[in-house]
Amino acid sequence: MSQSDVNPLEDTTSEAAQAYARERQESIRKFVRTNPDYYIENFDKIGASSRFTATFNFFAGLFGPVWYGARGLWSWALPFLILETLAFVQMARGLFGDLAADARARIESIEGTLELRRQQLAAAIESGSDKVDVYQRTVDSLEANIGGIRAEAEALAAEGPSIALTGLAILLVVKAVQAVVANWALEARFSEWLSDSSVRSGMPVQHIVLSAIFMVLIVSAAMLHYSFPGRFDLLSNFPTDPDIRLTGIQWVEDLIAWLVVNTELFFDLLTGGIRALLDALEVILVQTPWIVIAALIVLLTWLTAGIRTAIYSGAFLAYMGLLGFWEGAMTTLALLGTAACLSIVIGIPLGMFAARRPRFYRFIQPIMDFMQTMPAFVFMVPVIAFFGVGKPAAVIVTMIFGGTPVVRLTVLGLRGVPESVREAAISFGANKWYLLTKVDLPLAAPSIRAGINQTIMLSLAMVVVASLIGAKGLGEDVLEALQYANVGQGILAGFSILFCAMILDRIVQGGRR
Q: What is the rounded CA–CA span in Å between residue 187 and residue 475?
């Protein structure tokens, strides 16, 4: 074939491929920095297939987690470190560990009892007591137990070589796996580095030293602790002083006492406001004839969620009424309504304020995390100190636990409003109030409504816990069932709480649909 028959397109494609190959090789050199020719060959082999391609990296297998950590592959280094630590611990236990230490401790404990029983037996024989046979059987039994434990200790001591060999086998398997997957994992990191230059490349000396020190400390501490249990107190018990804890307790108590004395008027006013709202809801729900409340709930459910859900709500209300839980359920709804209303009234404006102020939201996020994750029994203690025992304190506890979802989901909904829609409204002359009420809130309404729903559900989950500090209602029935092991009452009252939750959920969810 003559030179004129060569396809120019194929020639151009070949030159582009060669240029790409040279560029890729240069990138690999820049990324690995050490032994680049080896990695170019293996990366090309790995990149040629979409499946896992096995290669062998001797240094990765030899140095293991240190190599992976130095390369920045910590998601691989830590699992391999755990496996290697397990292997080294088994080897150290098998070679140097005192495997029969626990058995000997049990023997020493039994020998003390055996010596006492022998003395009792000798005294009984000397005095001619009728308990000689009893003491003799006890002594024989203890001696037999000691013999069995000694045999067990000898068997454990003989297992040392097999335990060491098991650890060695684990270590060799882990080393082989590390060597096989090293290049594949590093090639994946190289692909990330091509699109994101902030990904660490090479093997800086400081990272090698840091990885080595970290791995050696972890493995050494684990080997010493498990191979020689109880010998190094520093590894078994955190170095502390009981006075530190006592001092911390005293500081907290002094702070709470100071706050109680200096904020008495504020908390009295707050308690009075909560009690007024709670009393108003109890008058409406508890003292109003049951048929009126039931009819209103069924009607509201029908209007928001449909006729089928209204029928279910009527059946749930009938269940609570026929089993004698009506007053407790209405008291629970009053408590829940007070807590939920206050949470919503505070939470939605707070979420609206935080949605456009990232710094403020970052400031309140740890506070909301604390409110949601701290166990309710912990923050009950300061609540009781400030509000005493009773329904206002129960409302505050319920608000702390269930008040954060409405804030988070309000922020999420408002931040999810498309900027293009907001810009269009502003371009047509919308002011801030119009933008908030006609654009942001309507588009964020599903998320806000979900936050209200979650706040109500979490508040209802606190019914039983709140009964511990004086809240009445269905939680008191469940608490009484727990105290007296009354299974039937606890289950029936629990179903009443469930049905209250289902009714409220359908009302809120129905409005969203």
A: 58
